[in-house]
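Input record (one chain):
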Amino acid sequence: MNKSELRKEIRIRKRQYTQEQLKALSAPIIERLRHHPKLIAAKTIMLYHSLPDEVFTHNFVDEMVEVGKDVLLPVVISETEMEIRRYTGAKDMAISSFHILEPIGELFSDYESIEFIAVPGMSFDADRNRLGRGKGYYDRFLKQVKRAYKLGVCFDFQKLNSIPTDQYDEKVDEVL
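The corresponding structure, as predicted from the sequence alone:
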């Protein structure tokens, strides 16, 4: 299958679950994330504020602020770009034109200081390749963040044996 066909397949798999079921499936993944040694050791971390079909991170993002982490969140700003915003609490979120909560905190550009990134994806494979939503936001961003430990985060049903890749695709260091 090509990337487009794989994305369709993963969307079909996701639709087999209700929001409540996906939240329940998220709990053990977040528990493993919470205890990940690279996350524990990091001061500046980039997470993501989950979309309805992703591993649910909303409470976890707040928890990381509460334990003293410098938390960063990505936000899409154009057809080709995302930027990184500092997150210090709920006041740093607003409803977007797409009717989803998006980060509006202080712009962050010191990418070298990011030590850990939780990377969402449509799918990951055994070789740590990532299939995104097709716009390349994370691939372009991850090329700029050499030092950070990149942890792919997904549900078990999103894992595939193999994902087709090209020269633009960025691997993660590990898949949770």
